Structures
1.
Amino acid sequence: MTGYLVFEIRRILRDAKFLLFAVALPVGLYLLMADRFIDQGAPAAYVMGGVAAFGAVKTALDVGARTAVERGIGWQRQLRLTPLSGGGYLLAKASVAMVVALPPVAGVSLVAALVSGVHLSAGGWALAVLGVWAGAVPFALLGLLIGQFATAQNLQAYQGAVVLVLSFVGGLFIPVSTFPQALATVAKVLPSYWLAQVGHATAPGQAALVLALYTLVLGAAVAARYRLGTARA
Amino acid sequence: MDIHEGAPALSVAGLRKTYGENRAVDGIDLVVGRGEVVALLGPNGAGKSTTIDMLVGLARPDAGEIMLFGVSPREAVRRGMVGVMPQEGALLDDVTVGETVTLIASLHRTSIPVEEALRRAGVAGLADRRAARLSGGQRQRVRFAMALVPGPDLLVLDEPTAAMDVEARHEFWQSMHAFAETGRTVLFSTHYLEEAEAYADRVVLMRAGRVAADGPVSAVGALGLEDAFLRLTGASETVR
């Protein structure tokens, strides 16, 4: 498995465009939002938490979902002719998603500290950076699940819709407290809502529990779907 | 392998696979001894690819038993005993030929040197080229290198020359022949009669998911294989 993981990490590190965009998008969004909302009284740390969570969600999802392309061209088939197990492949892909999910979170935090002068305790930073990053695991798995369903053609549409719903309805940009009651209820079902709780340092304990639950459920779904897909082939 | 010293390279009994209404493979029995070079011949839709997918563990049979060197297909793949060139199966465009074959080698417990696999497949000069910039025939030969690199005892090739021009085809068969010369086993599918005639010791003719004929090339070849092919696909008899 390690051999495959190293191979995949080398591949993604070579994709400069993807990496740059993964960091530039949330950092740009943070600067834009900080400029508007902080004047209106929102604490910079609050904006930072939500946007960092967005960066982690989008990047982790993207990496996982891109497996749809590899499935489409027959690469997964090729790998099944080697000793690499399905589980090993999925684990390597999820790990790569996690490696790439860290820079956007760190980037947003760094810019928030430097530009907006966000001050946190050591524990506060650990939660804001490492906590949000670790919380991206279920999103990496969700991306892999999308990758098992989508084709290279409809991938963008699926992924775009999922990211949009997760970030807006999950309250990564607009506080859920300002939502109408019904929408706020929906928000609380989404894993992104709970990742935002980590980012905002509001209910990290409960959030960790919910995200761990999502990890278990999505992990089982990805494994089951992968087994089904290979059995049918 | 140690405990299955005498097992044939391949043994198949009662193999069946149905896709919806279509009986793709409808009862196949086949034994391939070690060192044989066997052509799986038949028109499109005869069930060749489905059979091969099941032989190497890419598809699950509805019924029947498959053993490669006395173990299951998946186990044979895990031990690197079988090298496979599936018909569909691809290369990653952003990765070089050398990196791809190195990866496959690293996933197996044992392998031959990557340079040797590239050389034997005739793509030694392409190691630094990304797959996006390969021709169809070159891609096929890279995939042949991927099949060779675990150092398998059995090669299974599904229409290996499909995307190749005449010259590439000639070079490919020379590589395949060199592999078979070392006493190892090859099973390849084709719908080119002349390929079966020129490169196989034995021809297994498939038609409508069944084995229509199975015999040494010499026996079939005496009549002229093309004639035999037409006759046998019509008459479903065994020449052996």
2.
Amino acid sequence: MNKMQKALHELAEMDELAARSSPIHSLHPAAKLIATIAYILVTLSFDKYDLSGLVPMLLWPILLFQISGVELRSCFYKLRIVLPLVMAVGLFNPFFDKEIVLRIGPAAVSGGVVSMLTLMLKGLYCLMASFLLMATTPIDNLCAALRQLHVPKMLVTLLLLTYRYVGVMTGELAIMTEAYHLRAPGQKGIHISAWGSFLGQLLLRSMDRAQELYASMLLRGYHQHFHYADIKPFRRRDALYLIGCVLVFALLRYGKIAQLLGSAIVR
Amino acid sequence: MHMADALLAPAVAATMYVASGTAVGVSIHKLKKDDEPQKLPVMAVTAALVFAGQMINYTIPGTGSSGHMCGGMMHSALLGPYAGFLSMIVILAIQCLFFADGGLMALGANVWNMAFYGCFVGYFLIWRPIMQSRWFGAGKGAQRARIVAASIIGCIVTLQLGAFSVVLETSLSGITELPFGAFVALMQPIHLAIGLVEGLITSAVLLFVYESRPELLQCVEPAEGGSSRRSLKAVVAILAVVVLVVGGGLSLLASSNPDGLEWALFGNAEEGYAENMGLDEENYGVESAAAETAGAIQEKTSFLPDYAFADNDAAVGTTVSGVVGSAMVAGVAILICLAGGFFRKKRQSA
Amino acid sequence: MIEFQNVSFAYEKGRPVLRDLSFRIERGEAVGLIGANGAGKSTVMKLLLGLLQGEGKILVDGLEVKRETLGEVRRKLGFVLQNSDNQMFMPTVYEDMIFAPLNYMLSREEADARVDAVLARLGLEDLKYRYNHKISGGEKRMAAIATILAMEPEAVLMDEPTSALDPFNRRLVINTIRELLQTKLITSHDLDMILDTCGRVILLSGGRIAADGPAQTILRDRVLLEANRMELPLSLMGRE
């Protein structure tokens, strides 16, 4: 499989997950979107040494993964993109911040190690949260929510149109890449002599495609206005979910759950 | 260069959202005024194309490694700044939503770092001036040379700006202990090389478009006249030399004198980055929603909120309880997973 | 229903694609437009739909095709593109189908009723909420036809409706076309399909009409077809 085929596979997997049904899937997309953003903001707001404060934040995504029936491991595949980046930045911390903040028996833990761990946890949590959003919300529902939240129509329409053609284009490039490598077995990538024409050819064809697409819109009476499927009403349970989420986040943020749990045992 | 959520403080993420959002507003306003309804499908298809095109491996001759492109400059050359900007945003949004490349909160920053510079700076300060200039003379050969020059300069400059913004945003967020100067010295030279490769790829594609459909390029007049391929190679060679010299100089400067860079940027050289990273958040208007965060970053070397120093007996208890509590939370998380699996099985068998 | 009067067209000066083309299609007729690659078939379609402007006069239901009448003309014509991916630009089949009715100022209820009626008629109820990027080529073509039928056009234009379909789906599309009561204008190289669906054939060659008459006559004329870079439909081979 080449990269494009893998990307197509990933897209298809997300579509498949989002098409399932569960109590989380049936929630209003706007409620899920706002809750996700709130969760990420709360996660990011933790201080870089507040490891024990951050740990209980894990409970929310774990719980939702279980309720929605989305497998945790399908999300971990995507860690390969997030972790290296976070690590690249975080790995320096132990070298620059050597202040000892904690001793567990004979082992001393420096501030840099703690801040590196919180950074990694933050990366993990944010990934889980946004993965959960996309795994339980089809893209068109999400776009409907974006419009309700007054994101400009042009942007939302563009997102939908682009999403529709991302699959088509990626598929075409996958075939072209395959065809290229079948005729150039020893090469890892595109040779410099074809740098321009490889993507250029597809680009020219794409422009014709765009024209045909526009013709197709015009011929069906398009005048600067897109109609979408009906937007689901925001029901009481959606509001309850959102309020519940905010309360839980507040509790996790200021409640010092881990400290309380721990002190119940330690003392 | 995609920033992850974890690398940003909420305040920085929000600031970048506001900045990018403003640029979106301006772009949409301009596009609405231009009133070119056929532009929307062109934008969508170009965005989809660039999205897929980012996955192509380009072999870099003589190195055995491969390069990629990000597409900001290509967008502005094909669609102009406003439409190109919106298309780039959509690409970044799809990458962040479906591929975890970037993040929901980091989207504002990513749009700024990659789309804003590539489309606005790249178009108004580089592409348009060069295309409208008389550089390299008249005729088709000169036009080719201008396209190559604009692509390479554009990609390098916009990537440098983007990389610098990444450093700035990460440092302002107080995420890394890496001194600001060292971080800059690390990022800029790498992105110089990346920018050069991207510039070469972009110019190759744009030249191909120019040969067959010059009307697709912004600000390019389909010129008549003889072609001289020699001037093209000369341009590439000259540019490469300039890039190497300037790049080498810059990275030397950056690595040998990070304090100087800092001083130039933040004007507090005395403090020294070892103590303070050279960043004084309050002076840069960064306020975190969570009250402690900003203070904690500022005085991070002198106190640790809610935690005690190891030699402070009174506070060790809370720290240890923190560890124990965390372990318990992890236990609860595992229990939730087990319960979820149990109920699913039960439902399946029912 | 459709009338071309002395229509000429050239993409580049001095290289005409259509020369002085005149024909007339009556309401309810099914006409196959055939010809070699580059004979001008797609150009005829584009001129008819007002996507290109040429010389001469084109009438649709008595209306001349020009800038002022485009809206009305296009409302009467449904065009099924060769590449369904280019036609279906919305995320789901349903959203693509309501696109045109809503643009023509129908209420949401009327549009929904139309969509359901068309889907039921074509037996495609299962496709309604499917994603356009996840349905097969055959399903996509049927969905594209459904999209056009939801417009309730007076004439249906089709560009290679059976290209790249397996025999089963091809037959499905052919049967669907045969059941349409609208005026039909179909371009294709699939002459068997033209024979199955059209009563009349117009053969284009070098931008002019080389032949115009009953499908049974023209498609049996081996000499005429071969002179125009085509061959007899398979079903007629050995039965001249």
